[in-house]
Structures are given as C-alpha cells and as structure tokens.
Amino acid sequence: MIICPRCRGLLEVVMPTTINFSMEAARTRRFGVWRYRELLPLDDGITPVSLGEGGTPLISLTRSLNIVNKAINVYVKFEGSNPTGSFKDRGMTVGVTIAKNIGVEGIIVASTGNTAASAAAYAARAGLRCVVVLPKGGVARGKIAQALLYGAEIKEVDGVFDDALEEVFMEVVINGGRRLYPLNSYNPWRLEGQKTVAFEIVDELSFVPDTVIVPVGNAGNISAIWKGFKELYSYGLINKLPKMVGVQAAGAAPLAMTWKLGIDELYAIENPQTIASAIKIGKPVNWLKALRAVRESNGTFITVTDDEILAAMRALAVFEGIGVEPASATTFAGFKKLVEDNFIDRSEVVVLIATGHALKDPDTIVNKAIIRAEHYNLIVK
Ligand code: F0G
Predict the structure, then answer these.
(1) How far apart are CA 218 and CA 226, in angstroms?
(2) Residue 326: which of 342, 339, 312, 338 has the closest Cα?
(3) Which of 15, 244, 289, 327 could cross-link 278 (Cys pair, CB 3.0–4.6 Å)?
(4) Contact residues for 200 (Cβ-Cβ < 8 A; gap 6+)
(5) Which strand (E) or helix (H) includes residue 73?
(6) Which one-letter DSSP state was computed for residue 70?
(7) CA of 82 to the centre of ligand 1 (A)
(8) Which domains does the chain possess?
C-alpha cells in the first residue's frame, strides 16, 4: 500500500496540473497549514483533525550574525511553536485526517520522539489508538513525556530508530495495515502537510529565498519542502526555486556521505551516533527523494559535529532568544560553515528550518549545551 509494488519505491502524491488557488484570497484565512487547502490532496468535504498547526514565526537573525561576520539576510522558521512543539504537526494533521477517514482503529509510528509526540496528540484529538515504537534510551525526555501525556501506547526496542522502523514494518505486514495505520514519513500523506512550510515562507516574504537549510534525519522533511516549492513554481505562483541544503550530524550522516561519494545507492550507517537524537538515523527511508531534491535544486548536503551543534544551539538562544532542540541547531551550525566556504554569499536570503522546541530535550541543555558554548567564544552573561 505504501510501497510501489512494481519498483519497490516510495509513493508520492501527484497534484493536479491546474488548481483554483490564489495567495491573495487565501490570506483572508488563518495563517497555517489549512490556509492552503486547495494545494493539499483532500476533498473539500473532509473536516481536518486540527490543533491549529503551522503559521509559525519567521524570525530574522540579528546579533548572532556577528559570529559569521557578514550581514546576510537570514531567517529562522521557528517550527517549535507548533502545537506539540515540532514541524511534525503539519504532517500529522493531514495523516491523521486521512487515517480517521479510512476508518482504522489506530495509528502506529516509529520515532526518535517528535513524531511520537505529534502522533499521540492528533490521535487523541481524532479518538484513535496510537502506538509509538521508540529506540530504548534514545528519545529525549520532553518527547516521551508528551507521548505519555497524550495517552500513546509505548513500545521500546533495542537499537536505534532504524530498528524501531523495522518493527513498524513487521507490525504492518502482520496485520495488513488495517488495524493500525502506519504514519511514518514513508507515508506520502504526511509529507503533503509538511510541504506547507514552503507555502508559508513564500506567503510571508512575498518572494522566494535563495537557500533553505533543513536538518535531515529520515529525510522526509527536506523532500516535502522541495515538493512545496516545486508545486508553487508549476502553478506559476513563484518564478524561481531555492537551493535546498540538508544538514546531518557528523556521526549520523548517511546522506551527506552518499552525496560526498557521488553514489546512487544509500551509504547506510549501521550505528549512528549524535547528541541530536531526533536525527540519529542511519538508513533514512526517504533518502532517494531527498537526494533528488538537493540535486535538482543545486543545493548540497553537509555535516556538523556535536560540539558545533551545541554551540549553535547556545548562540541562537543567547543572541536571538530562539530556543531550539539540537537537531534544529544543525541549521545554524551548517549555515556558518556554508558562509565560511563561500557557498552562501552576502546578497542571499537564507531560511533555516528550526524544526523543534528547546524544551523537547531539557537534559542536553542542562548537561551539555551551556558548558560547550565557548566554541563560539560566547561571553555568557
Ligand atoms: N528535526 C527534528 C526536531 C526532528 O524530530 C526530525 C525527525 C528531523 C529534524 C528530521 O526530519 O526525518 O524528515 O528528515 N524526527 C523524526 C521523529 C525521525 O521520529 O520524530 P526528517
């Protein structure tokens, strides 16, 4: 159902070639995912399972730019202000709406934490069961707390996220996906919701940024955002496309390695390691879609170390008042590298997708992020 029986590839939603949508008219609606309803693959008659997702702030960076020593127009799209504190809510509102309408008993996801929190909340809202499969010891405390609070059934597996995802595949094979509908990001409906980040950026700026920097784990989000920009382009709503940059943690960088080696097979990492637990993934299922997105957009994949992530997290917090979790901080660390390498120049407009809220992972803040801040020579007040 989720995988093409012919080529074994992931399915993708193909939108109609013409569409009745105008940004002007849409702007009379609440800012958020459902403002762009005509650009989403759902019948008008369906009532979304919604918690007011999307419509997140686009915050321009100011004081932190001293770190890169250049005046560049950079914005952070702060996805931490979604209902459960991460971008996952954009996809979950669409995915759970579909699940509810096809009449399943519940949903099931493997997760490094944010998908679990989001799935649990939207399932609760829809009156569905929610089973989350988590890597034992690999999920930040805030995320587990959320999944518990929203009443998810938690199953832990030994290993990393990739093992948890295997477990979900098994579960779905056994029961045919009828009882528990799988809502990981290989499910194309979720990516449809996630593409609305692109719509919101264009909607708010009224132009297309030059570069969009995205943390990459299972590689769904970067693919979804690129799809969003491409659709706006195909409808004639924008006349250029941004470069997409995927950032991975150095110890969990299957796509950055694949990119560097210039190969067409995924360079899988058996035992991924990083402090950014959200993106501690060695075999991203959406790897091919993500590779195509970066290739088509003339972007790149880069890696950042755990120390760079922690320093970036601290910098965004003390210089801008923006609190993000480690995976999201990879974008600022990656941005700094790209400026130093002259991949990004002064005239560009850059958007960093800050995917999750700082409170998702309080232990990393308390135990690590503050101590390691000296990497940017921060004077801590
Ligand atoms: N940032 C955060 C905060 C995430 O939680 C994730 C993924 C990503 C970035 C990467 O997005 O997987 O689409 O490339 N979290 C998933 C989860 C894996 O289970 O919550 P991706």
Answers:
(1) 15
(2) 312
(3) 327
(4) 31, 54, 55, 56, 58, 77
(5) strand 73-78
(6) S
(7) 14
(8) 58-86+190-380 (3.40.50.1100), 87-187 (3.40.50.1100)
Count of H-run helices and E-run strands, the chain: 13, 10
CA of 18 to the centre of ligand 1 (A): 31
Cβ contact 39:229 at 8 Å: no
Strand-pairing partners, residue 78, are 354
Rounded average pLDDT per 10-residue block, the chain, 381 residues: 74 92 96 97 95 98 89 94 98 97 94 98 98 97 98 97 92 72 90 98 98 98 98 97 98 98 96 98 96 98 96 94 98 96 93 98 88 53 37
Tokens of 231: 């659709």
User: Distance between CA 378 and CA 381 in Å, rounded?
Assistant: 9
- Start-to-end CA span in the chain (Å): 55
**What pairing do the DSSP bridges indicate for beta strands 58-60 and 73-78?**
antiparallel
Q: Is the CB of 113 under 6 A from ligand 1?
A: yes
What DSSP line would sit under 136-183, residue for residue?
Answer: TT-S-HHHHHHHHHTTPEEEEESS-HHHHHHHHHHHHHHHTTTSEEE-
Contact 64, 373 (CB under 8 A): no
Q: Is 178 left (phi over 0), alpha (psi -120 to 50) or beta?
A: alpha
Amino acid, single-letter form, for residue 161 = F
